[in-house]
Amino acid sequence: MANISGIVTDTGTTPIHGAVVWLEKSGQTTTTGEDGSFTFIVGSSGTLPGNRKLLANRLSAGISGYVMTLTIAERAAVKATIFDLSGKCLSIVRKTIDAGNHSIALPYQGDGIYLYKVQTGNSEFVIKGNSVVGVSSECSVTTQGSSAEPLAKRTQNTAAINDVIAATKTGYLNYRAVVTNSDTSGIAIKMIASAGTITDADSNVYQTVKIGNQVWMAENLRVTKYNDGSAIPMDTSTWTNTTTPNYCFYNLTTDSGSIKKYGALYNWYVVNPENPKKIAPAGWHVPTDPEWDTLQNYLIESGYNYDRSTTENKIAKSISAETDWLTCSTIGAIGNDLTINNRSGFSALPGGCRIGNKFNNIGIYCAWWSATEHGEKSAYSRNIVNDCNDVSNFSASKILGFSVRLIKD
User: Fold this and answer.
1) pTM (two decimals)
2) How far apart are the first and last CA of the chain?
3) Is the model's pLDDT at 145 over the cut of 60?
């Protein structure tokens, strides 16, 4: 057996009670106690305890008699449909639930075996429940939509877990980090306070973080509409020699998980301040190049360089997430020892870019537009690379596809 345990605190030493902690690949989910502690027991099969099943958005569910137990990492609408074994729909239960553990009473159908289809968003699975013995049994019957992610971790070698541990708690930024040791105890999860949320024209909700006197999105923008509700043109073909706004997703993916993680890629004409249509909700805007300078200078002067120095630009690790970056051996680079990344909470992920008809460097690179022009055909942007330690300021062709972060007015 491989034990995974630890404690969740704020960036100081104060324990965080009620944080939802889970292993993304194996699907195990737990909640921290009063002292912020948590423990997983991962067997050689790596399966979920009991009959619980996991959706890609980290909702897990189980049936005991006529009670459904749910654990969810984010507030969401959940629908449970009850069928008999002939496939006849008997009843439907709909609930919108907050993050955490919940018990939902199900309608009495009489003794027997029933199928319970659990849905949230575009994901679903089916579990079998036996009301006679008051327990559920069997495995997931169907999966679709984003639940193509593994519902239960396949056989694993306990010598190397190779999983991602994640944690959520209202009021704090989401936490994710790689776990590779076979017997991992005393994991210290430090959760950074959130500065609230921002909602775009597609009703996507993003976390935000305060860094110095600025408040930034802690995720890349993925909106497909301007704030007046009109569509941003989507270019799935050439992406060249255009002076009109366009966006797309990396490799033209339609996978909701990938889109949420990495966001969309936009050409500069979408964020051009002279564009009468705006992608930022009221109270927010695309940062100018001087506003990026303010962020960079604050981090350097406040000791966010990888070596804690307060001169030169070595802040890339402090703004980069602890997962998904290609590793490297260069000391101080983003990809060297991911466990010490993201001290600022900016949570940058390597979403790559689009150059003409080609998508490049996911896992290696990320670039963000500024709202500041450099000339007729170029504009300023910032980029980071897995084997470098700095945040680079450079001018780029306006037709390139880069990520976008927003800053609060």
Assistant:
1) 0.72
2) 51
3) no
| 1-45+153-192 against 48-151: fold identical | yes
353: exposed, middle or buried (Cβ count in 10 Å: 0-12, 13-18, 19+)? buried
Residues 116-135, mean pLDDT to the nearest whole number: 66
Q: Where are the domains of the chain?
A: 1-45+153-192, 48-151, 197-408
Token digits for 154? 């396949």
> Is the domain 48-151 a CATH 1.10.3470 member?
no
Give percent above pLDDT 70 in the chain: 82
* Mean pLDDT to the nearest integer, 116-130: 73
Per-residue b or e along 288-324, where b marks 16 or more CB atoms closer than 10 Å to that residue's CB: ebebbebbbebbbeeebbbeeeeeeebbbbbbbbbbb
- Contact predicate 151/59, CB 8 Å: no
Could you tell me the fold of the domain covering 1-45+153-192?
A: Immunoglobulin-like (2.60.40)
166-178, pLDDT tens digit by residue?
999 999 999 999 8
